[in-house]
Write a structure and sequence with these properties.
Chain lengths: 166, 166
DNA sequence: GTGCAACTTCAAGCGCACTTGAAGTCAAGC
DNA sequence: GCTTGACTTCAAGTGCGCTTGAAGTTGCAC
């Protein structure tokens, strides 16, 4: 019936995906992957789950949470490999995200480069430590370097600045 | 006595750095920053702490943990702004790290680009889902896309693959 | 000298992404 | 049919980087 074994045990899926079985159970609990059960209650994964796991891991690389990965996954077909039409919007969204990350890193890199010759982190001169010009424009406790978490518009003041949650 | 106020309360440091006071106390507990105390026991921060906080936040952006940030900080002078000689090795190390991150993201981006036209994630063709060629070389459960956590050389087999902890 | 915001400590809690452990069951090779 | 390793569930634990809350104290403006 199976020319190419098409149901995987959790151990096999773990071996092939590089994840621990506990992680796979966790993913399943979150709804990222799914399984059928044997009469005895053991999980059996369709090969398509390899793809979904791969997708989730790639999503993590792009910086998505598992929750976000699940949302992206919901836009792809469950049963077959996505075709170009299905895949393109996801890939493009990810590429944009990657581009943003790269741009951010390049900015940081440039700033570091400037610092090498400038007596770095001196309060007045250095771009790396620069709370006042780039960022003070949008609220107290400006994030300057940390462009990812703009302060809420209602930011009341010190002592309540919610962390960026890195 | 103070032509330019040179001791900051925790609230002021919070406002200027963009961090919550709780975060600053946490940093101090970790030894990343330090303070003097008033007669009444309240913290007063030297302005140099602004620089240290900035450094820590930048380190986080580069992907360092607070612990690693502390180690890097230990290589810089406590009391004065680092000069070019002191700063250069740190900046260069960070730039290398940033370059690695950028390279990794660019690789991922290219792979995604290839996927747009290829019926992506099809088990045989796609670079994104590709456990066998690039990575199977270094152990079972190859990490392929996730180049950051190479499996231990002693990797025994399935069911015990320790998580990568992205 | 008083009122109030800002500060103090300490313990506990949170969110994410898992891992670990206990106690038990299943499946497959001999 | 027995053994053994792979599986099951469930609850609790981990590590990081903080936040929250309670209960009390300090410091500055008026």
């Amino acid at each position: 019936m199976s020319p190419l074994k098409d149901r995987l045990t959790i151990g096999e899926l773990a071996a092939r995906s590089g994840l621990a079985t506990s992680a796979l159970r966790y993913y399943e609990e979150l709804g990222l992957i799914s399984s059928e059960r044997t009469a005895g209650g053991q999980r059996r994964y369709h090969r398509a789950m390899l793809r979904r796991v791969a997708f989730v891991r790639a999503a993590q690389r792009v910086g998505l949470s598992l929750d976000e990965a699940g949302q992206a996954l919901a836009r792809l077909p469950v049963d077959h490999a996505p075709n170009a039409t299905e895949w393109a919007p996801v890939a493009r969204a990810w590429q944009r995200r990657i581009d943003e990350q790269i741009a951010e890193l390049q900015l940081l890199r440039r700033k570091l480069g400037g610092c090498v010759g400038c007596g770095c982190l001196s309060l007045k001169r250095c771009a790396l430590y620069n709370p006042d010009d780039t960022a003070a424009s949008h609220g107290p406790g400006a994030r300057w370097l940390l462009g990812d978490t703009p302060p809420e518009p209602s930011a009341p003041g010190p002592g309540s600045g919610s962390g960026s949650g890195s």
